[in-house]
């Protein structure tokens, strides 16, 4: 197995941009061993979990009592223990012992990116635990924080409480305002009644964040409060919670997702009862970043599987990588994966700053972050499916056989377009940002400014991007005075065009750094903007060794 520095120099280059020297040295060392751990032990266990060792609901004990326990296999238990002990959640909130200082989200998400290449199903519980830790640290009162946060961020020194966030109800789905779980006051706490229909990490979490409506509060989202609900009482019995059934999911089978019923569960309100949805949306934004990170992780694994297979497989007397169409596919996948990964880590660096001090960040900065999260979550989720499909096709019939990882990648990738908001929901988020913050005006101005700062080496590549920006500005002007129905109809197309522009400019800016990145930018821009029948340059074929194998450094090519 090749080391991380050879397999993914793009990841390390992104970390170098966003981490100080001390934390980068630490991350480089730890991620190298974490990569080896994930692509060997975790990957092997993931196969067993997916095929034979899926979570199971033990509904009753031998005396007929409802115990609603979720069994997971021993390998999954080991993966969970070892991964949390790396500090993937904890070191965002407490010092790394070797450094005497906290880590940050850039490092944590780098771990998540690697973990998702082997077991994206388990990255879901990690995500939920990250979200729970953030909400506790920033919004819970001191008593609640002291009682539960040390367990949620445990790296082995105290018992670990994994987290969960329960929003979805049968009648609501994405319409959170239709939620009906009741919260009844009971002294210093509340009791919850009702059900959550898609509750991931159920039965495995120590605590869950649950949206519920206090009796007498208003309707829709304004009447929702956020509660911390321990899964069990101090004596170890269930806290008025039962599991109706586990969901039989297409993929990410490692994470138990359930229908959960509350019947008098003791719950503690988090922060201001009037801000429940706001707190949960903060957690949701964090989860959307995790979703994008998992997506680019699956993209990377699919690319590596396709590349390694094509380098080994012979057909008609040649290895597959001798053929121009194969070279084009692998080069284009490489360009898209690297550009989108770079965009994600740029976004994560901003996320880190905003989330570390949410009260200090301006509303404009928060709105910009929400825009980038929505755009990148939407695009990378779709790309994870596309990459998994391409990897299967590269393998031919073998790619459809469960002996290979490719079928699992496709099944696991499919959920990423659904979790934490579909493309339609994210497009509506972009539309809200446009209406409330005029975010499209800032977007157009910033993209124009960044285009103007490009150096002469990449400026010729930017021509279709410049035209695309002009087209976006004209479309926005035309839609500005239209009826709500017309604006909603075009929301997804506008969001996709904004994402095309943002990613293209990321590619062009990286293209100023070296010859290889310039070729990456050329391929990315052509993929997005220039889909003509004839490609005179055939850069993906001529520069295959440089782009895909990272071999050598050719002289800059003349621009047409």
Structure description:
The chain is an alpha+beta fold and 560 residues long. The chain is globular, with a radius of gyration of 24 Å. Helix content is 55%, strand content 13%. The longest helix has 37 residues, at 276-312. A five-stranded mixed β-barrel has the order 6-7-11-9-8. The protein has 18 helices and 13 strands. The two termini are 40 Å apart. Helix 2 packs parallel to helix 9 and helix 9 (324-356) packs antiparallel against helix 10.
Number of strands: 13
Would you identify the regions where 5 or more consecutive residues have pLDDT less than 50? Answer: 553-560
Terminal residue distance: 40 Å
Q: What's the arrangement of strands in the largest beta sheet? A: 6-7-11-9-8
Structural class: alpha+beta
How many helical elements? 18
Radius of gyration: 24 Å
- Average pLDDT: 96
The major sheet is characterized as:
5 strands, mixed, barrel
The helix content, as a percent range, equals: 55-70%
Which range does the strand content fall in? 5-15%
Give a quick set of tags describing it.
single chain; 560 residues; two-stranded antiparallel sheet; 55% helix; 13% strand
Break the fold down into its secondary structure elements and pairings.
Blueprint: H1 4-7, H2 9-18, H3 21-51, E1 56-60, E2 66-71, H4 74-84, E3 95-96, E4 101-102, H5 105-118, H6 120-139, H7 142-152, E5 165-166, E6 182-186, E7 189-200, E8 207-214, E9 224-230, E10 241-246, E11 257-269, H8 276-312, E12 314-315, E13 318-319, H9 324-356, H10 363-395, H11 406-414, H12 423-437, H13 439-452, H14 463-479, H15 484-511, H16 515-529, H17 539-542, H18 544-547
Parallel strand pairs: 5-8, 6-8
Antiparallel strand pairs: 1-2, 3-4, 6-7, 7-11, 8-9, 9-11, 10-11, 12-13
């Amino acid at each position: 197995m090749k080391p991380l520095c050879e397999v993914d120099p793009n990841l390390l280059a992104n970390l170098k941009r966003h981490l100080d020297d001390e934390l980068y040295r630490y991350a480089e060392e730890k991620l190298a061993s974490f990569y080896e751990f994930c692509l060997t032990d975790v990957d092997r266990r993931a196969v067993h979990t997916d095929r034979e060792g899926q979570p199971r609901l033990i509904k009753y004990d031998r005396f007929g009592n409802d115990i609603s326990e979720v069994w997971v296999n021993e390998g999954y238990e080991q993966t969970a223990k070892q991964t949390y002990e790396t500090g993937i959640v904890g070191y965002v909130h407490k010092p790394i012992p070797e450094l005497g200082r906290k880590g940050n989200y850039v490092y944590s998400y780098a771990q998540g990116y690697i973990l998702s290449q082997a077991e994206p199903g388990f990255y879901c519980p990690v995500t939920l635990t990250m979200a729970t830790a953030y909400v506790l640290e920033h919004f819970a009162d001191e008593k609640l924080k002291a009682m539960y946060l040390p367990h949620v961020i445990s790296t082995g020194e105290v018992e670990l409480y994994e987290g969960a966030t329960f929003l979805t109800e049968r009648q609501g789905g994405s319409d959170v305002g239709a939620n009906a779980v009741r919260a009844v006051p009971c002294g210093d706490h509340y009791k919850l009644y009702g059900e959550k229909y898609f509750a991931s990490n159920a039965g495995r979490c120590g605590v869950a964040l649950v949206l519920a409506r206090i009796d007498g509060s208003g309707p829709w989202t304004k009447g929702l409060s956020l509660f911390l609900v321990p899964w069990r009482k101090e004596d170890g019995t269930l806290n008025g919670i039962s599991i109706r059934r586990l969901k039989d999911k297409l993929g990410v089978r490692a994470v138990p997702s359930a229908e959960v019923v509350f019947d008098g569960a003791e719950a503690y309100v988090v922060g201001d009862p009037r801000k429940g949805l706001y707190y949960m949306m903060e957690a949701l934004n964090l989860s959307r970043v995790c979703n994008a990170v998992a997506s680019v992780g699956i993209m990377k694994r699919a690319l590596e599987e396709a590349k390694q297979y094509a380098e080994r497989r012979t057909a008609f007397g040649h290895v597959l990588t001798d053929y121009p169409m194969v070279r084009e596919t692998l080069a284009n996948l490489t360009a898209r994966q690297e550009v989108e990964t770079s965009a994600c880590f740029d976004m994560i660096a901003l996320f880190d700053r905003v989330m570390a001090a949410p009260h200090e960040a301006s509303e404009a900065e928060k709105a910009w972050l929400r825009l980038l999260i929505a755009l990148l979550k939407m695009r990378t989720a779709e790309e994870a499916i596309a990459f998994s499909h391409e990897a299967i096709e590269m393998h031919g019939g073998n790619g459809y056989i469960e002996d290979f990882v490719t079928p699992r990648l496709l099944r696991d990738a499919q959920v990423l377009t659904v979790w934490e908001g579909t493309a339609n929901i994210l497009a509506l988020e972009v539309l809200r940002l446009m209406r409330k913050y005029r975010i499209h005006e800032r977007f157009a101005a910033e993209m124009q400014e960044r285009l103007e700062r490009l150096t002469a080496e990449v400026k010729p590549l930017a021509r279709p991007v410049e035209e695309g920006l002009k087209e976006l500005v004209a479309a926005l002007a035309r839609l500005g005075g239209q009826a709500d129905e017309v604006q909603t109809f075009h929301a997804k197309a506008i969001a996709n065009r904004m994402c095309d522009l943002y990613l293209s400019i990321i590619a062009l800016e990286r293209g100023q750094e070296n010859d290889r990145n310039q070729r990456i930018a050329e391929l990315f821009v052509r993929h997005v903007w220039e889909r003509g029948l004839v490609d005179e340059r055939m850069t993906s074929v001529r520069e295959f060794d440089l782009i895909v194998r990272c071999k050598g450094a050719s002289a800059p090519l003349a621009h047409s």
